[in-house]
Design brief:
The structure is a homodimer. Chain A contains eight helices and 19 strands. By secondary structure, chain A is α+β, with helices and mostly antiparallel strands. Chain A is 22% helix and 31% strand. Strand 4 of chain A pairs antiparallel with strand 4 of chain B, so a sheet runs across the interface.
Chain lengths: 364, 364
């Protein structure tokens, strides 16, 4: 049997003895801190492939203290959401893209690939069981976290021969408590997130571990996030903590090209496709921070916004680069940001018809 | 109370119901695959600091599926050994250096620091309990793995508010089954391990995760390890998989300077100190791969060797850079490598008196 091939037919279900109380006040959910009753788990064993898929009560994973994920960071994950439409349907947004990216991450981390179609089916089954956990209030959603961790209990540095694939679900509140609100970010000068040749394009623990220190320093200075520059020339724009970044310069919408060091965001991809369909000039290219500053000085920097599953579109109101503080859009949300936000959230919550296949119905 | 401060007085001991059988054939131990009866565990909780230190039976750690170490790689570790001297004493080699480096890693990863003196005391206590597990045959030792993992069960990307510090012990066989044997390594051209501004100087999962793919490709080509180049100019030598690297060029012994992207090895540091005390010319500086190739062409590249806890000193017999294959030392071990190996292992196994404080006796 080929590495990564699955030997599964159906998904076992282990019923919980009792269910948790659902959150009372969905506006206070926050992000990623409470979890639903069930999780999906399957195991990988060398020679057997992925096996024993099961939906079972959310609970601790017993891990050998020498499990490789705890020492060598051999772990990958995904992040997506389930949305409740006004008519009660539960929707996913381009979920195949997440499983495709999961496998790209697996490849970089020497983790056996998963069967994308099976994982989507299993996720749909899990979300259907947990449908009552999908929040009801506007802009709240059920955050979905699939992840794979290396479980072999050995201390030699090599790829593990066993893994867990797990999916947990977390009802999460609206990202913007009081509507779309521009954030302040600064350009990071000391720390580097990832460099070409590294694993920046993969969604794997180490990239986030590397970002904690810069994020902590940004928070102390009351900035929401940092804008990463490339690790080679320390000049080209990469991305923000958990978002890709776009600039509207004159009549061009620019976002850094994918060159191996940034995450290929699914919101980024969708935004590019939407804007092109609207007839906007969109460019994926190298973009130096000094080009942005120059555009700002000339009055050409019209908008700046981040894109990601959590915030969908996040307008940037202030961008600080060393001593230079760039105020963008005068505290207002620009027209491109607003249109993207409305369109993407419209599609996600089933209010707007998107391109074919973007919206996947889990159940009614 | 200050972050990271400890509230501990004494270490609890939970006796195992039964002890495992000790390995029959110590020459077949391999590395890091069997573990002793006990492990050391302590917990960190925000507001309380490190608490509840306990020595208890080796066994699974129950981790929340959302524990941050499983998603964001917030984890650091150390690697050291306990050696059995001919007269029965159990010795550690410069253990304070490991705990100092552990705290350096903690700092980079936003993990609360540990009390170094307490951790050394706890380690000594654990090793003393497990003294019978320290191998008896020459060149075998008890590998010691202290590590810290983030345990908070939340999916927001920020530093965890709770951690485990764990120490596990693994009896390990001689690194060289048939005496010091030169290895083949190649210069990595596609992948990068770490870049300045990143976390290359810390002993943390992500750095090893990033190296798996290159290591896998090297193994397929029958090379033992890869030699990493810097991520910026892709020209300056960094280190090998789990070793620092030295070159003897003419009368100079050169090793890359510590500039944030490589691990500051304790064997490296010890080797530098020993060689300086022998009156050798040692330099920590930038060293380009083309300078090494030029030295080779001129017949000046006399030795190349790696240093690390696992192999102590590992002579490099072949270094491949693109199409250029450099055969070093004609399959023989050079005089500097040999003297370093003999001296370091002599000190480690208590046969040779080293500089004050290098050898720490755990028990007799
Ligand atoms: C580093 C990073 N960049 C960008 C993104 C945006 O990706 P997506 O639009 O797929 O959510 C994320 C995750 O959400 C991220 O973690
Ligand atoms: C990446 C790396 N470099 C170098 C070394 C050598 O360090 P030390 O001599 O402290 O064992 C190690 C670990 O052993 C390592 O993992």
């Amino acid at each position: 049997m080929k590495k990564g091939e699955s030997t599964m037919t159906e998904i076992k279900f282990e019923r919980a003895a009792a269910l948790k109380a659902k959150p009372q006040d969905e506006s206070k959910l926050g992000f990623g801190s409470i979890f639903t009753d069930y999780m999906f788990v399957m195991e990988y064993t060398e020679g057997r492939g992925w096996h024993d898929p099961v939906i079972k009560p959310y609970g601790p994973l017993p891990l050998d203290p020498s499990a490789m994920c705890l020492h060598y960071g051999q772990e990958v994950f995904e992040g997506m959401k389930a949305y409740r439409a006004a008519d009660g349907r539960i929707l996913l947004f381009r979920p195949e893209e997440n499983f495709k990216r999961l496998n790209t991450s697996c490849e970089r981390l020497c983790i056996p690939k998963v069967d994308e179609a099976f994982c989507l089916k299993a996720l749909e089954q899990l979300v259907e069981i947990e449908r009552d956990w999908v929040p009801h209030i506007p802009d709240a959603s059920l955050y979905i976290r699939p992840f794979i961790i290396a479980t072999e209990g050995k201390l030699g540095v090599h790829a593990s021969n066993s893994y867990y694939y797990v999916v947990v679900l977390s009802p999460s509140g609206p990202y913007y408590a009081a509507g779309l609100d521009p954030v302040k970010i600064y350009v990071e000068k000391s720390y580097v997130r990832a460099v070409r040749g590294g694993m920046g394009f993969a969604k794997t623990g180490g990239n986030y571990a590397a970002s904690l220190k810069a994020q902590e320093e940004a928070s102390e200075q009351k900035y929401a996030q940092v804008l990463w520059l490339d690790g080679v020339e320390r000049r080209y724009i990469e991305e923000v903590g958990a978002m890709n970044i776009f600039f509207v310069i004159g009549d061009e919408v620019v976002t850094p090209a994918l060159q191996g060091s940034i995450l290929p965001g699914i919101t980024r991809k969708s935004a590019l496709e939407l804007m092109a369909s609207w007839g906007l000039t969109v460019s994926e290219r190298r973009l130096a921070i000094d080009e942005v500053a120059e555009a700002y000085d000339k009055g050409l920097l019209k908008e700046c916004f981040g894109t990601g599953t959590a915030a969908v579109v996040s307008p940037v109101g202030e961008l600080k680069w060393g001593d230079k503080v760039m105020e963008i859009g005068g505290g207002q949300i620009g027209p491109v940001s607003q249109r993207l936000y409305d369109t993407l959230t419209g599609i996600q919550w089933g209010k707007v018809e998107g391109p074919a296949g973007w919206s996947v119905e889990v159940c009614k």
